[in-house]
Amino acid sequence: MPTPSMEDYLENIYKLIDQKGYARVSDIAEALDVHPSSVTKMVQKLDKDKYLVYEKYRGLVLTPKGKKIGKRLVDRHDLLEDFLRIIGVSEEKIYQDVEGIEHHLSWDSITCIEYLVEYFQRNPERIAELRALKEADEVSEANTDGDSEKTVE
Ligand SMILES: [Mn+2]
After folding, report:
1. Which residues form the HTH dtxR-type domain (predicted)?
2. How far is the CA of 65 from the centre of ligand 1 (A)?
3. Secondary structure (DSSP) of 30-79
């Protein structure tokens, strides 16, 4: 099993290759906000563990094993974003929150969240109910704050 840090690399390498057709050390360093020398070190480790093949002058290719786990990690990230969006987390918090939780849930929990997201997507009226519950609470909180003129969208 890859470590959380390896997961971040595999996730981003998969995404870069998917979007641009290739992943350079400099692109990975930028995506993960780390020093290129850290990328080189991790890429060598991922090569040793057979997730990818790294050749200094030809770049980096994911192995079938690397592709499979990379896709799974990207899908997991997207699923968790959908989940937080559905339960009403504000857009500016979603990405960082997913980065914070994605490595710490079991695949069992991920599967359960997947069904929950599917359930809500099939029943959008339930999403509306959930939103209404949150908004009603926000309105009553605003009122008890003596801020009764505050309007809630
Ligand atoms: Mn992520």
Report:
1. 1-63
2. 19
3. HHHT--HHHHHHHHHHHHHTTSEEEETTTEEEE-HHHHHHHHHHHHHHHH
